[in-house]
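Work Package 4 report. The design task specified in the project plan requires that, given a folded chain encoded as structure tokens, an amino acid be chosen for each position. We show below one input record used in the internal validation round.
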């Protein structure tokens, strides 16, 4: 009995010594899978919004996606090509590894095993998601009458950006070479956004800045990058690996303060973030 107690004591001592030598199991200093202390919760940038098509299917870890988002700590994040399970994982990593706490709402338009896994008879949900540091209300999810080669839609929420109530839309328009389909989708989206004095439209529009189908949105709202506005000369920075601009932040009744495009190794689309003034 005494020998047994001594053996258990020795194992405990050796385990503690190993933990001191090896150190924490996560680069951030937090044990992998464990929550950070309450004091580690960091502040978001209250007037910053992000749009990012996170790529699906792609062989990418959600911890990597969360780290990309955490580097900019936005108030609002619009994700496209998003599976519910992936978004939940990203949200958990943002909280546990980076101290960023978000609410989440979904605008899923498909249940697809090939994209989101799950059982063949109960596949995962796929579409858009919005994460916001502030609570969200009046959530709607709308599937476009014609999605093109794949069901597509938009979602909208009301939340706070820089302390002001704003209607936020997140969309993913029809795939390339489906201009007529996108044109009808834009008309639906623009009609919904026109009902609000202050609105932010995020998403993957699958269209370059001078594409005719974007005209209804461009007449209603202004792009956060001046060079991406039809009346302005100059090149518009690409947001995809194939060097085309498809991803935008459009503002209605809100002043743009600046935009940056971050090329990410974890998606075929770049992360786009904008600082805005809704006052």
């Amino acid at each position: 009995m005494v020998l047994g107690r001594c053996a258990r004591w020795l194992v405990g001592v050796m385990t503690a010594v190993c933990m001191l030598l090896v150190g924490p199991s996560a680069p951030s200093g937090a044990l992998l899978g464990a929550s950070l202390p309450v004091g580690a919760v960091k502040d978001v940038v209250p007037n910053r919004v992000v749009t990012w098509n996170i790529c699906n299917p792609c062989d990418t870890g959600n911890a990597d996606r969360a780290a990309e988002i955490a580097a900019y700590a936005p108030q609002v994040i619009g994700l496209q090509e998003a599976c519910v399970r992936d978004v939940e994982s990203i949200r958990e990593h943002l909280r546990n590894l980076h101290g960023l706490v978000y609410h989440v709402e979904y605008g899923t338009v498909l249940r697809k095993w090939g994209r989101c896994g799950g059982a063949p008879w109960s596949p995962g949900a796929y579409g858009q998601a919005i994460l916001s540091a502030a609570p969200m209300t009046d959530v709607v999810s709308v599937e476009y009458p014609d999605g093109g080669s794949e069901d597509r839609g938009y979602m909208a929420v009301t939340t706070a950006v820089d302390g002001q109530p704003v209607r936020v839309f997140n969309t993913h328009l029809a795939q390339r070479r489906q201009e007529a389909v996108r044109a009808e989708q834009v008309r639906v989206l623009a009609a919904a956004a026109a009902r609000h004095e202050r609105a932010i439209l995020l998403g993957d529009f699958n269209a370059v800045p001078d594409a005719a189908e974007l005209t209804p949105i461009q007449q209603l709202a202004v792009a956060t990058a001046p060079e991406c506005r039809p009346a302005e000369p100059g090149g518009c920075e690409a947001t995809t690996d194939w060097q085309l601009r498809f991803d935008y932040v459009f503002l209605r009744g809100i002043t743009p303060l600046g935009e940056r495009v971050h090329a990410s190794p974890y998606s075929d689309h770049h992360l786009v973030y904008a600082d805005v003034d809704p006052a």
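The longest strand covers residues 74-83. Validation will be extended to a larger panel in the next phase.
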